[in-house]
């Protein structure tokens, strides 16, 4: 059974940084495609970033150059480093394995104040 536990969310001022963590069990992140999604109030959930088994990554246009997805194979954990945060980044952030119909964490709230 896959379990994903996110942490690291919080309240930050615009221009600040946060690092989200996703501790995984039941899946080996080193050989899996893992992703971060977010959902803002009144909006659909959207893909933020993904990392693939080969280490390649892709990002939503809205976060390119500001967010970085990475993983620690020894800790079986995926990270999302978020820099230069904007109020429009405010959302609940979810870790994902397996795409839309895969496994999801419980989410962590990120709030960026202006």
- Helical percentage: under 10%
Sum up the overall morphology in one term: globular
Extract low-pLDDT stretches. none
Give a short account of the largest sheet: 7 strands, mixed
Strand content: over 45%
What is the succession of H and E elements?
EEEEEEEEEEE
Secondary structure: number of strands: 11
Distance between the termini: 40 Å
Rounded to an integer in angstroms, the radius of gyration calculated over CA atoms is 13 Å
Structural class of the helices, strands and pairings?
mainly beta
Oligomer, anyone? single chain
Query: Treating each run of at least 4 consecutive H or I residues as one helix, how many helices?
Result: 0
Average pLDDT: 96
Task: Please sum up the structure shown.
With 114 residues, the chain is mostly beta strands. It has no helices and eleven strands.
3D architecture notes:
- It contains no helices and eleven strands.
- By secondary structure, the chain is mostly beta strands.
- The strands form two sheets. Strands 2, 4, 5, 6, 9, 10 and 11 form a seven-stranded mixed β-sheet that branches.
- Strand 4 and strand 5 form a beta hairpin.
- The mean pLDDT is 96.
List the helices and strands and how they pair.
Blueprint: E1 3-7, E2 10-13, E3 18-25, E4 34-39, E5 46-51, E6 57-59, E7 67-72, E8 77-82, E9 91-97, E10 103-104, E11 108-113
Parallel strand pairs: 2-11
Antiparallel strand pairs: 1-3, 3-8, 4-5, 4-9, 5-6, 7-8, 9-10, 9-11
């Amino acid at each position: 059974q896959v379990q994903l536990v996110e942490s690291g969310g919080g309240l930050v001022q615009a221009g600040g940084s946060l690092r989200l963590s996703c501790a995984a069990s039941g899946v080996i992140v080193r050989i899996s495609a893992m992703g971060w999604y977010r959902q803002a109030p009144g909006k659909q959930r959207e893909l933020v970033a993904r990392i693939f088994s080969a280490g390649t990554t892709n990002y939503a246009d809205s976060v390119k150059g500001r967010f970085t997805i990475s993983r620690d194979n020894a800790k079986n954990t995926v990270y999302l480093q978020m820099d230069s945060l904007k109020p429009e980044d405010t959302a609940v952030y979810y870790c994902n394995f397996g795409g839309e119909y895969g496994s999801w964490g419980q989410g962590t709230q990120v709030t960026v104040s202006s």
